[in-house]
Amino acid sequence: MSKSVGKQASRAAVWVLMGLLILGLGGFGISNFGGSIDSIGEVGDEKIAVDSYARALRRELNAQQAETGRVVTFAEAEAGGLLEQVRARLIGDAALDNETRRIGISVGDARIAREILEVPAFQGTDGQFNRETYRFVLQQNGLTVAQFEEQIRKDTARSLLQAGVMAGLGEPETYADTLYNFIAERRSASLIRLDAAALDAPVPDPTEAEIAAYYQTNPAAYTAPSIRQITYAWLTPEMMLDRIEPDEALLRELYEDRIDEFVQPERRLVERLVFPTEEEAAAVMAAITAGESTFEAAVEARGLRLSDVDLGDATELGIGGAAGAAVFALDGPGVTGPHLSDIGPAIFRVNGILAARETSFEDAREALVDESIRDRAARMIGDLVNDYDDRLAAGATLEDLAAETEMELGRIDFTGEPADGIAAYESFRDAAADLAAGDFPELLELEDGGIFALRLDADLPPALRPLEQVRTEVAADWRAAETRARLGRQAAALAGRVATGEAFDALGHPVETEAALSRGGLTPAALGEALFDMAAPGETRVVTAGEGAWLIRLDAILPPDPDDLAAGFLRDTIAAQAGQGMAQDLYGYFAQELVNAVGLTLDQSALNAVHAQFR
């Protein structure tokens, strides 16, 4: 068993390493630092190479960029603790490498060769290992053959040690069952809902004193958000449309370029089942024609699924030859064959017919005009960028740009939320959020090809709006709160009657029942929280929310549904995640203990040298 685990772990290490090389480092070109700087530190006798640290940093920066969709600067990574995380991981790996050497765990050349030969990135066009491709891929990622093979040797040996440390660590069943039973527990309840109609008398309008008191005790509800007063100049393709006349020749060219979109031949929804020989295909087709079998049964008999034989919406030309002609000769859905396809004898099933569609130039013209002039407007704006940049660099203000160019001036009280106009653009909202007082206006791009520049005029902190501005809102809120309070008192009175022995369904109000509810299955959220907060059947709670109140009684506490596949998956997921968490913690503690035992030294000058390449 341990041999199998070790083999899988070593292979995983190679694939991970290759993935990091090809995806994480492509095109970066980490260079050797040379000179006397060859490591950022040591764990025992194991050095942490500066190149390894640089590659790890680049890999993490690329991962952050892929996750966030924007370039993460080195300063942001440093402030976010990314550097410390990378160093901690490399220190842990070095500690394990030091330990594998101390206790004599090693991997032979034959194992390394087998791992390398199976990496697709090192294979040529014939699917076999190609030494020149191998060297080229490594060279592109700043590695020599010796460095790479030594890294695989270390990774494989390290994975064997990790497997040994975590061997026998199973899933924490008791923990998983406890958490699963809590999450997937179900409850049944009876509810009485009270709304404004249940009041003895309507809630009156609030007095001025009541409005003032409610306003003073709930200031957060009437406080305006912080506002950034911003002046901007912008130009979008939309603003340029009325200045552009459509070019008929260009429209015709655009129509021809996209003719496949406007003129589509008849297509059919087709499935193709291929056989080794024409005799087998003919026998299956005969059985289907005689009603002794079905196309679905034939697919299943071949060990396939319908998705495996689905060709989607195919054209006669796409199927090709006599097979295509036969498929398109069918008057409707049906099966035909056997016919010779490009991969062997096959039977075909047609599931639907999509009629041919042709949109004439005249019918498509309006859409083409809009697209072409918008594209031309965007290109015209692009041609103006250098001129506008030069004006800003020469000291022109936003007001100057608006007066002297096609750009338009505007002002906005920006709160950070999407709004009409320029605030509808995410690029503007991002720039407005990052803008600082004194920033020099620069041209930035909008998502539709437009451009803008902006200036921060003032930052206004959150401020309580005057009562005169929000009087109507305060009055409505007071009325809702008063309604809720009165209904809550009524519901509490009903709860008191239940406590003295009255039956729940004899309180004079309609009773709703809910059976086997899961967490989150009862709304509003406060009602669901109250249901799962009660300890024993028969307990009641009063819940108020919005302009209503509820009296809820817990009727039954039920275990998770054993037939619910989703619940079973949840239990397995909890167990797996808990097991992985324990394994990671154990590995972390073991690596840290190794570091403590042999000691750690870091070279700050080497770290600074690496960091300098990223700044």
From TrEMBL:
It is found in: Cell membrane. It is a single-pass type II membrane protein. The chain crosses the membrane at residues 12-30. GO terms for molecular function: peptidyl-prolyl cis-trans isomerase activity. InterPro entries: PPIase_PpiC, PpiD_chaperone, Trigger_fact/SurA_dom_sf. Keywords: Cell membrane, Chaperone, Isomerase, Membrane, Transmembrane, Transmembrane helix. Residues 246-366 form the PpiC domain. GO terms for cellular component: plasma membrane. Its main location: membrane. Belongs to the PpiD chaperone family. PANTHER family: PEPTIDYL-PROLYL CIS-TRANS ISOMERASE D (PTHR47529), PERIPLASMIC CHAPERONE PPID (PTHR47529:SF1). This is Peptidyl-prolyl cis-trans isomerase D. It comes from Rhodovulum steppense.
